[in-house]
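input
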Amino acid sequence: MPNKPAKYCIKMYALVDSKSFYVLNLEVYVGLQPEGPFRLSNKPEDIVLRLVEPIRNSSRNVTFANWFSGYPLLGTIQATVGTIRKNKKEIPPQLLACQNREAKSSQCAFQQDVTLISYIPKKGKNVLLISTLHHGKQWRCIWLTEISRTATDGKDTDTSSDEVLKPEMITFYNSTKDGVDIVDELSGSYIMFLGTVKNGHLLYFFLLLNSAGINAMVIYNANHPEANVKRIFFLETIRIISD
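output
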């Protein structure tokens, strides 16, 4: 993808644990296939349902980017949070307007087990999120203290005057949204030979090996927390053993 850290002209979708960065599932985008068993729907909601199949009914939350999010998907997964594009027909017009709204303000809409929130991080900017996790009694706001940088010594200082009310849905989304991007960066940091690989099948193979290396390190560190092995050392150890 042009706007991603690794640019190999390959489009892949991934389901990644947001804390450990373990890659649970991958799907390669191959376009529209001929009629037959390998022809699958490329609709965002269908891609998500295939990706989350290994964790279905496990009470895990799934955090989406706005390309995947939409109202039809929410009823098929137990707990979801995601940004949503402003052109979705299910968004009330009142939540789209931001001209006369104050910075750090929020508006919410509720329907059955779904919460839609419009948050104004700064004047004139509107962020929309939709969730089935934050609903009813679970939905609330929490106080956060923003950090500002001083102009004198360049150090971060805690400014209590900058306390703002921010929806928990926003803070939860921000804390869980970067799993795929971090795995992408890890892949780009250590993967080898991709620049010279011309065969598409071999390129896919190397990418899968790299994901397997990430997962192996996650499992090793989970079983040996005292070791805290860095990835470059872990991969070097694997290479030596394989040699």
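quick obs: The two ends are 33 Å apart (CA to CA).
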